[in-house]
Amino acid sequence: MSTPSPAVRTKPSLTTAVVASVALSAPLLAIASWGDSNESNPARRFLVTIGVAVLCAVAVFVWAVPRARRESAGITALVLALLAVLSLGVYWIGITAVLALGSIAAVVTGPSGSKAGWPQRAAVLLGAAALIAFAVLTFFELG
Description:
mainly alpha
């Protein structure tokens, strides 16, 4: 009879975060593209905005989040969260969700053993707020 091994706590992979950020952006960008009555070519708009989101995801999850893994995650995550909030002014481009999830991933996948200080907590709160605001703004655009 074998004994159960203790639960091993692993950090989520960055590939999962990249896919999640684009997968979360895609339906919202599709709704915005096809729900906008002023848009003459919604397929083109969707492809352009999802392309921008993918390029942003590559930059965030190939450069910024790994940087946060090497160093204190707080400042990098906070910068990503502030960029997510600022990108709400141009939310239709599709980078808000990527930046917001990048800020959260920077905290979650940050250095092991580091205590969550105010920058990490602020980054998670701002990132979550920007993500919710992105969804709300997308649905308000339909009206």
